């Protein structure tokens, strides 16, 4: 018993060393999956880290080998750091505290929910990232694409040669005809024919006065109709698609990445105007997204093109990528307004979005209400005005949009009106917006 008490501290120390060594070996033996790691990295890490450069945190490409070489730290250290870096710093770990101080004491998010295998997958991705699929623009440089381009070029040449040949033949025919006319004039046959023809517009009008007056009257009516039709379309700009100071693709943001409209246009639901987002809204995402790596690329564009547009946002915000800080030298972005109602029309976004979400369109989301006016914005690379926004267009929408009578509020509030309409027009009558005041002049003009 005395002997055991004498050596129990050494035994406990040996056991703890054995367990620590086993844990370390176990961690190092875990085989990571780079593809799974890529998904985990993009979900958990990409907001603050990139493989090839510093963002909020350091570049993580080859970080395992780098720390092994520089600090003699293994995978077990990464397991502790990623899951609970705060506890690791509190334990007195030297390098953990050095990193914390180096990055201005910005505390890294803890990920206790990640398993050892998840961490191993992420580290494998940072060590051996999967090869990037060839970009869409690179396909244009492939042998097949070059061959097709050459064939198309040859076909164009053949068509041009054929057109020039036809043009030459026509010129030759005209030349021969002119020679023939000269011969006929010399013989006197054409002079006799000219005597029976009308040689001026005045002669034609005197000969066909009735027809002439009829034609003039028709032309006057058509001219008046054209002027009237032109006046009716003043201020109607369907298809208007101006150039913007920064190229912004709604298809990439709202379509490919499925970003909700109201994340950027936050006042659309609760304000009269759906404001243009300020540059700080852009920086909420692009502070950590410095280059475009998406799969979708618009025809005629490249990833470098989109990345260059992101740099314009940095210039406007006064963001320095190298130091990851704001310089204070900002520059306004002069966006060109596309949708604008006339001054004599009152339009409230909140009224339409809230009504559309809760009372008008059954079981559909807000973005459906947005699309009703703005069109399929999520499919537009370059935003344009999708509808006419005339008074007739608005009235037609109110006459055809059905009120959701399964909504408890609507069912109670409009029940008597609905029953009255059924008696007047039949049992299949549906409640539309015009029936609840959607055609009142004072709603839009006051």
TrEMBL record:
Highest rank taxon of the organism: Bacteria
**CDD domains, per the entry:** Cytochrom_C3 (cd08168)
Q: Which InterPro entries match?
A: Cyt_c-like_dom, Cyt_c-like_dom_sf, Multihaem_cyt_sf
Where do the Cytochrome c domain residues begin and end? 32-130
Gene3D superfamilies recorded for this chain?
Answer: Cytochrome c-like domain, Cytochrome C3
PROSITE patterns found in the cross-reference section: CYTC (PS51007)
- Signal peptide location in the record? 1-27
Q: Where is the chain membrane-spanning?
A: 158-177, 215-236
Keyword annotations of the record: Heme, Iron, Membrane, Metal-binding, Signal, Transmembrane, Transmembrane helix
| Protein name from the UniProt record | Cytochrome c
> What species was this sequence derived from?
Cloacibacterium rupense
The gene designation is actA
């Amino acid at each position: 018993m005395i002997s055991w008490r004498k050596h129990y501290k050494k035994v406990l120390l040996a056991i703890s060393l054995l367990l620590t060594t086993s844990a370390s070996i176990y961690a190092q033996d875990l085989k990571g999956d780079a593809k799974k790691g890529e998904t985990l990295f993009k979900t958990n890490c990409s907001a603050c880290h990139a493989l090839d450069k510093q963002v909020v945190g350091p570049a993580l490409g080859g970080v395992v080998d780098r720390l092994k070489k520089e600090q003699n730290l293994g995978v077990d250290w990464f397991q502790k750091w990623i899951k609970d870096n705060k506890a690791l710093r509190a334990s007195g770990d030297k390098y953990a505290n050095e990193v914390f101080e180096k990055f201005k004491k910005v505390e890294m998010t803890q990920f206790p929910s990640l398993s050892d295998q998840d961490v191993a997958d992420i580290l494998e991705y940072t060590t051996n990232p999967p090869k990037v699929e060839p970009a869409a623009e690179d396909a244009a440089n492939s042998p097949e694409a070059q061959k097709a381009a050459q064939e198309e070029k040859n076909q164009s040449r053949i068509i041009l040669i054929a057109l020039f040949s036809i043009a030459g033949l026509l010129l030759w025919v005209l030349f021969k005809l002119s020679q023939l006319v000269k011969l006929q004039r010399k013989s006197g046959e054409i002079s006799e024919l000219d005597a029976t023809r009308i040689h001026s517009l005045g002669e034609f009008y005197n000969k066909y006065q009735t027809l002439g007056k009829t034609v003039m009257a028709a032309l006057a009516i058509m001219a008046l109709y054209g002027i009237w039709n032109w006046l009716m379309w003043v201020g109607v700009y369907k298809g208007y698609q101006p150039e913007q100071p920064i190229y912004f693709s709604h298809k990439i943001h709202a379509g490919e990445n499925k970003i909700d409209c109201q994340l950027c246009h936050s006042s659309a639901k609760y304000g009269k105007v759906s404001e243009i987002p300020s540059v700080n809204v852009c920086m909420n995402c692009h502070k950590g997204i410095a280059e475009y790596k998406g799969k979708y690329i618009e025809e005629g564009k490249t990833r470098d093109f989109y990345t260059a547009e992101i740099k314009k946002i940095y210039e406007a915000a006064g963001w320095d990528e190298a130091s990851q800080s704001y310089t204070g030298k900002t520059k306004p972005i002069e966006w060109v307004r596309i949708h604008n109602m006339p001054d004599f029309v009152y339009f409230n976004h909140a009224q339409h979005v809230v009504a559309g979400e809760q009372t008008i369109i059954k079981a559909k989301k807000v973005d459906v209400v947005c699309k009703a006016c703005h069109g399929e914005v999520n499919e537009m690379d370059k935003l344009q005005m999708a509808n006419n926004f005339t008074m007739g267009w608005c009235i037609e929408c109110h006459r055809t949009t059905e009120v959701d009578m399964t909504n408890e509020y609507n069912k109670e509030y409009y029940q008597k009106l609905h029953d009255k309409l059924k008696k007047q027009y039949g049992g299949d009558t549906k409640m539309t917006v015009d029936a609840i005041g959607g055609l009142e002049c004072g709603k839009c003009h006051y």
